[in-house]
Amino acid sequence: PPGEPPLFAYPNGIMDAPTGSPAKAADDLKSWVAAVAARTRPSHVHWCDGSDAEYRRLTEAMVADGTLIPLHERKQPGSYLHRSDPSDVARLEDRTFICSENEADAGPLNNWKSPAEMKAILDPLFEGCMRGRTMYVVPYVMGPPGGDAAKVGVEITDSPYVAANMRIMTRMGRVALEELARKGHFTKGLHSTGDLSKENRYIAHFPDEDLIMSFSSNYGGNALLGKKCHALRLASVQARNEGWLAEHMLIVGVTNPQGETTYIAGAFPSACGKTNLAMLVPPVADRAQGWSVETVGDDIAWLRFGEDGRLWAVNPEHGFFGVAPGTSEETNRNALASCRANTLFTNVALKPDRTVWWEGLEPAPPECIDWLGQPWTPDSDHPAAHPNSRFTAPAGQCPSISDRWEDPQGVPIDAIVFGGRRSRVMPLAFEAFDWEHGTYLGATMSSEKTAAAEGTVGELRFDPMAMRPFCGYHIADYWRHWLEMGRKGNAGGGDKMPKVFHVNWFRRGEDGRFLWPGFGDNMRVLEWIVDRVQGAGDAVETPLGYRPTREELHMDDLGVSAEDEEALFAVNRDDWRAECDQRDAWFDLCGDRLPPELRQQNDALRERLG
Ligand code: SAT
Ligand code: MN
Questions:
Q1: How far is CA 568 from CA 272, 423, 424, 462, in A?
Q2: Cβ atoms within 10 A of the Cβ of 58, count?
Q3: Residues 298 and 434 reside in one and the same domain
Q4: For residue range 557-581, what is the model confidence (pLDDT) as tens digits?
């Protein structure tokens, strides 16, 4: 309005492009920011430059208003605790929408509303929603800047907590505007804390406009829009259109005693141990032999063909958003070291000495403050940390981080591992016969639900390629894209494709006990995978695929009995026939959009079962 000071000024020079022709992108950005400000009416607009000074001001302001609690200066320097609204602790799949023009393009696994219908709901919610708040403009790059893989996004948010998390999880600020000048395009993300009510909570994706709108949640996957919303849901659509893959995968490098490093990408559903596998510390004996593991990423991989026709992967993120409970010196010492400083903790417990605690970290303290801000003792009837409490930590702080984690070309992937959480039926490990069979293994992955999403923990559900909550288009088209990537004559394909494996660390015996020790001992399975990729490594053919031998996994050293080994690898034919029937019903969801190869793979498995 006349007489009022201008709503914002552009930071000095930030729109001056170093190279390329950024004019249109810069204009798009300015007019979009102006339009959003006009609609949401913030009292200030702040363009994030990503500097240390800015981060300090952000966190200081949040300490002042109680949003953050500073932790012990020496024991946990630069770190803070945040307690979320008690109803805002996980992704909300019910309120997550893919708003493609055509309902059929969203597929059977996504909620859908037309763009017009969704905007008719959201536009009034965003109207004036930032009154009295600061609007942060958060430019970010996903992927190492300067590389072909890198993509730019801009998140507008009225949450300083979200802006601070984005500073850790992405390359944020000036670097992103420089990348925008090179790329000339950005993904738009509009987020508001709203009133945090569940009725008004929406996480909406508009693939045709490359736009995300998220309202009334500040939780990670719902609010840090660079992560699942951009780097998976919208990127998966772009990847299909452009001939690459955006996947819910960790990336890890395993070096053998000969000094050869094999890079492995692994898809596991949320809270099934991706961060632990990505940061695995090999057992002493394996290290003595010369085995080592390095971390490239723990959650998302973007894979594209390199000039050599192989698949190369980058980690688009810059930080870890890891599950805290269960993380300890024994289970994942690299994760603990990653979050020793400069970390934002959400919904963990606070000890009297102003350090954090969660179940599984170390023995329970005699007293602490739980994630709800209430006094807690070991006699309390609920966990002190929320089961989905998280740490947001800079990836560069991880002791096992790879020298190549920021390589713009990425790393060449020689194996893809699929895994779920299955107490029964699914063996410890096996190798697919070929890419098509591997695609079938990914398409039929299933897993018991975890606390990472709202819903019933433990319920078994199909989670294809661990992408069920994250695929931004029709799942059958996604599978078709996977099959097509493997066809020879592409930029790659054929025998250049990674070998595919399936693992399950979570199988239990009749007595309910885990049959496999897991954690560091998963190294034995990684070593077998590396040996297979390198053309060595024994395997035995089973109806499911090739399984490792007892010797390959050093089961004697591990003290896994012959009975337990048998139970770990048992293929119970009745169970598996039932599994095949369920897979047929699962594929039926896709009608005639299903690639016929997948049905044929299921029939072939049935035949091998006899
Ligand atoms: O989606 S989050 O980023 O919050 C974590 C997950 O569920 O994988
Ligand atoms: Mn994840």
A1: 18, 10, 9, 21
A2: 21
A3: yes
A4: 999 999 999 999 999 999 999 999 9
Section 232-241 average pLDDT: 98
Kindly report, residue by residue over 457-491, the tens digit of the pLDDT: 888 999 999 999 999 999 999 999 999 999 987 78
Q: How many angstroms separate the alpha carbon of residue 256 from the centre of ligand 2?
A: 28
Binding residue numbers for substrate: 91, 219-221, 270, 388-390
State the Cα–Cα distance between residues 113 and 89, nearest whole angstrom.
25
Q: Which ligand 1 atom sits closest to the C-alpha of 270? A: 8
264 located within any domain: yes
Nearest atom of ligand 1 to the alpha carbon of 323: 5
Ligand 2 centroid–CA 173 distance in Å is 24
**Does the structure show a pLDDT above 70 at 11?**
no
Q: Whose CA is nearest to atom 3 of ligand 1?
A: 221
- Could you list the active site residues? 272
20/389 Cα distance (integer angstroms): 42
**Whether residue 235 is found in the same domain as residue 295:** no
Q: Do residues 445 and 420 make contact, with C-beta atoms less than 8 angstroms apart?
A: yes
3-state DSSP assignment of residue 345: strand
Is the pLDDT at 593 greater than 90? The verdict is yes
Give 116-127 pLDDT, tens digit per residue: 999 999 999 999
Average pLDDT over residues 96-105: 98
- The pair of three-digit structure tokens given for residue 72, joined into one six-digit string: 């012990």
Q: Which residues fall in the annotated binding site? A: 91, 219-221, 228, 248, 270-276, 299, 388-390, 421, 519-522
Which value does ipTM take for this structure? Answer: 0.96
- Structurally, how many domains does the chain consist of? 3
The answer to whether residue 344 sits within a structural domain is yes
Residue 270 Cα to ligand 2 midpoint, Å, equals 5
Same-domain pairing of 462 and 443: yes
* pTM more than 0.90: yes
What's the token pair of residue 468? 């069920």
Are residues 542 and 492 part of one domain?
yes
In a domain, 578, yes or no: no
Q: Is the CB of 230 inside a 6 Å radius of any atom of ligand 1? A: no
> d(Cα 391, Cα 389) in Å, to the nearest integer?
7
| CA of 249, nearest ligand number | 2
Confidence of residue 454 (pLDDT cuts 50, 70, 90): confident
Print the domain residue range for 366. Answer: 320-394
In a shared domain, residues 165 and 226: yes
